[in-house]
Write a structure and sequence with these properties.
single chain; 326 residues; alpha/beta; Rossmann fold; Ubiquitin-like (UB roll); six-stranded mixed beta sheet; five-stranded mixed beta sheet; 11 strands; binds guanosine-5'-triphosphate; binds magnesium ion
């Protein structure tokens, strides 16, 4: 034991070695960390404490999720499942209640939201499924939050413009990196994420009505690149709806409409398809047997006019009205 540590440190270390339960061990380590003078002479000890701490925290997390043994699985509905991600009080629930019919709990205090809360957000003739989540935080986070985020089709990141938002952004990035998300160019390189499907993200600078400084905002824009940042406030939803169109474009989807021969098209219920999908993909989406029996289709749209006949490999266009012939 080097002479330059305090008796309090030695005491904490004693408790670390005597502790039987993980939380006690972690608490003792945290105390040791706080009490250890940080200089060159203690570098080895610093590294040692950090290594032990991360190992024990991982063990604790694992034992908790094993004990709990559950996770929330939210069935996908609508044109895209969008987890709403942000630090405590960043305005997640305010966004969800302003843009959907569901009333999730909004409050001035932190950690208001404790369970996932799905709600449908209308956009034109379709819906996006938002999921209000508990906050991302440096303290304990439920492991199921990661499960929900990983399944998302687009990550909506809320950054409170009235806070120390550059460090908030860095914190969110490091968390998302630990989930191995593939958001091209946004997160630090991660060989595991590379093997997973790339997904889009969008940053909203919230509480824009309270605090705004063009220069600071531009720093956020730079730090978020290549992910776009939009100014946002939940107090005046009508004025800030633009983010929905952005989401639509980022999801790389399009809407097509089905028509039964001899009848008017059903313009109320679009089919949401991926950009690049073919007529055959559409037939399959309408009915799983249709793709086998499909002969051709007639299309009314911007690219094909007046019921032009197309084959199975026709690439769908936004707004196409499609009449399948089996
Ligand atoms: N002025 C203003 N206040 C906002 C805005 N968005 C949220 N707030 C306020 O900020 C506080 C926190 O909002 P919430 O929507 O509950 O935040 P949250 O991110 O869901 O918080 P947690 O669930 O605790 O993580 C509330 O008092 C809201 O009224 C906004 O755009 N403008
Ligand atoms: Mg909330």
């Amino acid at each position: 034991m080097p002479a330059n540590v305090s008796p309090m440190y030695i005491d904490a270390e004693k408790r670390f070695f005597q502790a039987k339960e993980l939380p006690e061990k972690i608490a003792a380590l945290e105390e040791m960390w706080a009490l250890l003078p940080k200089h060159k002479g203690t570098e080895k000890m610093q590294a040692d404490i950090k290594r032990r701490m991360s190992k024990l925290k991982a063990e604790l997390e694992a034992s908790k999720s094993k004990k709990r043994g559950f996770t929330y699985t939210i069935p996908k509905e609508g044109a895209g499942q969008i987890p709403v991600i942000g630090l405590p009080n960043s305005g997640k629930s305010s966004l969800v209640s302003a843009f959907t019919n569901s009333k999730t709990e909004v409050a001035e205090y932190e950690y208001t939201t404790r369970i996932p809360f799905p709600a449908m957000m209308p956009y034109k003739d379709i819906f996006f499924q938002l999921i209000d989540l508990p906050p991302f935080s440096k303290e304990y986070m439920e492991t199921w939050v990661a499960d929900i985020v990983k399944r998302g089709d687009l990550y909506l990141l809320l950054i409170d413009l009235t806070s120390d938002f550059l460090s908030d952004l860095e914190f969110l990035k490091s968390k998302l990196h630990s989930y191995h998300l593939n958001i091209p160019g946004f997160l630090q390189y991660d060989p595991v994420a590379e093997t997973l499907p790339a997904k889009p993200a969008l940053v909203l600078g919230t509480k824009f009505d309270i605090n705004y400084d063009e220069e600071l905002f531009n720093l956020l824009v730079d730090a978020s690149k290549p992910v776009d940042v939009l100014k946002f406030s939940a107090t005046d939803p009508g004025k800030y709806e633009g983010f929905k169109e952005k989401i639509y474009n980022l999801l790389n989807i399009l809407r097509v409409y089905s028509k039964i021969p001899g009848k008017k098209p059903d313009m109320d219920q679009p089919f949401v398809m991926k950009k690049g999908d073919t007529l055959l993909d559409f037939a399959q989406a309408v009915h799983k047997d249709f793709s086998e029996n499909l002969k051709f289709a007639r299309i009314w749209g911007k690219v094909c006019f007046e019921g032009q006949q197309v084959a199975k490999d026709y690439i769908l266009n936004e707004g196409d009205v499609i009449e399948l012939h089996l």
